[in-house]
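Sequence in, structure out. Go.
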Amino acid sequence: MTFRSSFLRLFRRKEKETLRLLTEYLDSVFKVVEEFRTLISSLISGDIALSSPSTFEAKIDLISVYESLADDLYLKSLITLCEGAFFSGLREDFIRLLNSIDDIADYTKDSSQILARSRLDKILGEYNAGGDVSFNLFLDKVVKTVEVLRSAVYDLEKNSAAVIKKSIKVKELEEEADDIKWKLLRAIFSRKIDPLTLLELKDLVLTIDGIADAAAQSSEILIIIVMKARA
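Output:
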């Protein structure tokens, strides 16, 4: 029996339903991340619509709504996992995976709340002149870690080799995002700006970086799940 076929045999009907919930949950989390990226991009580009406080607040509230919907799916998935002895001893790893994915949503919501209290829209564009010190480039790398993670989770039921390959890619993207993060922080601290704005910018960069860190941690758990299944 090949590793691929033995891996697929782990998933019975109830377990496949749990995997369906997991992918649905990750889709919901990715929607939170995507909505946040849209907000940041609009702020950087100077979208006139966001100059209205009510429009800006509505965008922030929408991210919170999506995060709340993701939380509902998180709890549903967690309850389903805890109610049965699924996944041939891998249940605890799947619970860890759920918790790590939940961190992605939490960091995204926290990032939006920093924007809500600080209104950094005017200064964000100053760190988007191009090259490798770019807020947009940083955010794109972070979002890509979540996107590739989602794709890896999709492959859990059908292609274990792809899970490992994509999980490794998530780690590579996280490291690239980390490099851009440090360049952004050096650029931020090299400028003469008021201390409160400096601290808010630093907080925003580090919190966004937490999204990529959580995605990378999730990818590590995926690799553990695949390797345990091989054993």
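Check: The helical segments are 3-8, 13-45, 53-83, 91-118, 121-124, 135-154, 160-189, 195-230. Residues 195-230 form the longest helix (36 residues).
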